[in-house]
Amino acid sequence: MDTINYGMLSQTMTEIRKIDQIHPDPVIIDRAASVIKNGGTVVFPTETVYGLGADATTDSSVMKIYKAKGRPPDNPLIVHFSSLEMMRKYVHVTPDIERFASNVWPGPVTFILEATANLSIVARASLPTAGSRIPANPVALALIDRAGVPISAPSANISTRPSIVSSAEAIVELDGKVDMILDAGMTFFGMESTVLRQIEGGYEILRPGAVGVEDLEPILGKIFVSAAARAAETVDKPITPGMKYRHYSPGKTLYRIEDRGAFISYVAENNTADMGIICSDEVASSAGLQCISLGTEKDLYEIAKNLFPAFRKLDSGPYKSGIIHGFPESGIGLAIMNRIRKASVPYQ
Ligand code: TXA
Ligand code: MG
Fold first, then answer.
1. Of 146, 168, 183, which residue sits at a domain end?
2. Ligand 1 pocket, CB under 6 A
C-alpha cells in the first residue's frame, strides 16, 4: 500500500468510499477485497461496531492492525467469517456449535474455538484458540466473501478509546492510519458482540455484549457470568486478555455513581458546572437536568447505542470531567454496565 514516511511518522493514504449498508455496491466491495488480499487494512461496518480488518491468514497483514490501533500484542483479535463452511477450514467447529450455528449466526455472538495452523498466530496473540463469528452485516459478509479469506478485526477505535459506531467517527480517528474506510453510516447495535467460551457444564461469558444471557440460555443452555465479566471487580488473573486493559474510555475522567438515587442527590447538591452529566431521559426529567442524553431506559438497546457516542461528546464538549449513573444488568444492560465500569472510576 502507498505509505509515505515522514521521518518517524508514517502516514498512509486512506481511500474513503461511501457504501450502502443493506445493498453494498459490488464494485466498491471488489476494491476493498483487493486491499485485503494485497495485505492492507480496511475499516468496515458490522452490525455491532466498526471493525479494523486485515487478512486473518497472514501475519504481516494482521500486524498492521495492532500498529494502527496501538493495541498491545497480547490481546487477540476476533476472526470474522462469511459462512460456516469457511469457518470450518480455520477453526474446530464443535458439534455443539454446529447445532447452534443457525440460531446465533450471522449475529453478534463470538465463540472461542480451537484454531488450525491456517490462522495467523499474530491474530491469536499466540493462543491456540481464536474468537470466531459470522457478522450480520451485508457489507461485512460481502467483503469477507469476495476477499476469500477470514478477516481479523478488532473494534476500529484507537486502543483504550470508545468503540466506533459511525463512519464519521472512523474517519476522524483513522484517516491516515489505514488503507481504506468503508463509509456506511451508523452501525445497528453500537455495542460489541458477546464473547463466550465452553466450560464444564455450559458456556461462560468472557465479555458481555449485544446479545443478553436471557436470549442465549434457551439456545446454549447454562451461561455462567463471573464478577470479572461484569467488570464488577478488578482482575488479577484475566481469563481473556481483554479483561486486563483499560477500555472504551473517554479521554477525560468519567466518574460513576451506580445508584440513581445517590446520583440524583449528588448532581442536585454539588456544583457540576464543569462536569458533563451523562444520563437517561428518565433521570434527566426526574432530576430536572440538562445532560448528554443516552435516550430512554424503556429501551436498553437505545441506551447501548448512545453510550460510546456520549463518551465522545464528553471529550469534545466544554467539560473537565464527566459523571454517569448505573443501569439494570439485564439483557444488553449487562454489556452497558461492563462498558461503563471499564470506562469510569467510582465516585467517592
Ligand atoms: O462486535 C465485536 O466483537 C467487534 C466487531 C468488529 O466484530 N470486535 C471487537 O473486537 O470488539 P475486540 O478486539 O475489540 O475485542 C475482542 C475481545 C477482546 O476482549 C479479546 O481479548 C477477546 O475478544 N478475545 C479474542 N480472541 C480471544 C481468544 N482466543 N481467547 C480469549 N479471548 C479472546
Ligand atoms: Mg475493542
1. 183
2. 46, 48-49, 51, 75-78, 108, 110, 112, 124, 127, 129-131, 135, 153-155, 192-193, 195, 206-207, 240-242
pLDDT, position 7: 41
∠328-331-337 over CA atoms, to 5°?
45
Cell, residue 316: 469534545
Instruction: Confirm whether 29 is domain-assigned.
Output: yes
pTM of the predicted model over 0.90: yes
H or E element in which residue 133 lies: strand 129-133
Closest protein CA for atom 31 of ligand 1: 240
Residue that is last in its domain, among 154, 183, 212: 183
Same domain (yes/no): 26, 175: yes
Ligand 1 centroid to Cα of residue 48, in Å, is 12
Is residue 38 scored above 60 in pLDDT? yes
pLDDT tens digits along 114-152: 999 899 999 999 999 999 999 999 999 999 999 999 999
Say how far apart CA 157 and CA 170 lie, in whole Å.
Answer: 7
Q: What is the pLDDT of residues 226-242, one digit of tens each?
A: 888 888 765 555 556 66
The answer to whether 191 and 209 have CB atoms below 8 angstroms apart is yes
Residue range(s) defining the domain that contains residue 323 = 253-346
For residue 243, pLDDT beyond 90:
no
